[in-house]
Amino acid sequence: MEENMSMKDLMDSFELKHFHKGDIVKGKVISVKNDEVIVNIGHFADGVIPKSEISNNKDFNIDDIKVDSEIYVMVLSGDDGEGNVLLSKKKADSIKVWDDLEKDFEKENLIKVKFSQVVKGGIVGDLNSVRIFMPASQCASRRVENLEELIGKTLDVKVIEFEKNKKKVVVSRRIVEEEIKNKEKQVLWKSIKVGEKRRGKVVKLVKFGAFVEVSGVQGLVHLNDLSWSRVNKPEEVVNVGDEVEVYIQEIDMDKERLSLSLKDVVKNPWHTSIKKYKINDILDGEVSKFIKAGAFIEIEPGIEGFVHLSEICYDNIAKASDVLQLGQKVKVKILDINADEHKLSLSIKDASEKSKEYLEYNDNEEGFSLGDLFKDFKF
């Protein structure tokens, strides 16, 4: 009986035994043409996917399908008229994607989604013709002011809500970023040491300093540790978003806190530049701060000296601001240097041309005093 079967009967018999219309099978791509894709699905005849059955995505490029890649397809019929099995990739994708999404939701797997539109409350994307929604609050671990910046991007996300019956899929990028940061933190806490230098990013400015994120952990750089120079506001040294190198000062693993410094990355001027100064030098400086007892004068970045009220002028004054202003340029004379304690004692009055020393010097610079000059004059 089998000997009397026609080729068509034989094909139909084989097809019914192995494939049925609507079956979803996995095959290997053996050829990609402009209008179709040829797939080996283990049948004695090749499977053909017409261009119209490849994808519902209008932006899809047939060249994205590569030879030897494995894809899932749906059997549409056993013969396309030329002896090939007619297949559909887009129909298989539309069914399989829901099964895959359900597994990804249950196993908390990462999925890639390209987002295409901003909508009320968030953004939407497409995954094999399935609408994917991501709330604004889940777009990143930071607050995203402009959601448009995410449009056109393909992001790794996790499914946080899944309802197949309602065709509802909600995803989060925020969870992914937080997991990445937590992993970075674990690595950091195991490896970080006091005294080493690390790269970080300025993430926040406050009155008392700047917070710098190092491998997912935020540390504080106090105002005093931003620079060797006096700093009134952190904005004078850094801005949010700046990439900086910081010095690890203290580590508190229990509270997960870092104490950082920017100034310790560069050389301490009290150990280098101070060597060029000596007692009695007269220098140019700038008034940098007032206190009750006097004023601080910066003679170069990172090196300040103190002028006591009694060394500002010969007049009795109640406070330094009576005769000086912040930022004012003044001449100072070095009275004492203590590099170890970062202390410099200065005088403004002794550097002035009205000082007693100056007048005595000028009176005697020609070898005689004013008294000698006028001794023969009668008044």
Automatic annotation (TrEMBL):
Coiled coil: none annotated. GO terms for biological process: translation. The keyword Ribosomal protein applies. SMART domains: S1. InterPro entries: NA-bd_OB-fold, Ribos_protein_bS1-like, Ribosomal_protein_S1-like, S1_domain. Residues 22-90, 108-174, 195-263, 280-349 form the S1 motif domain. Keywords: Ribonucleoprotein, Ribosomal protein. One of its GO terms (molecular function) is structural constituent of ribosome. GO terms for cellular component: cytosolic small ribosomal subunit. It comes from the Bacteria. SUPFAM superfamilies: Nucleic acid-binding proteins. The keyword Ribonucleoprotein applies. Belongs to the bacterial ribosomal protein bS1 family. PANTHER family: 30S RIBOSOMAL PROTEIN S1 (PTHR10724), SMALL RIBOSOMAL SUBUNIT PROTEIN BS1C (PTHR10724:SF7). This is 30S ribosomal protein S1. It comes from Clostridium tarantellae. The lineage of its organism: Bacteria, Bacillati, Bacillota, Clostridia, Eubacteriales. The gene is rpsA.
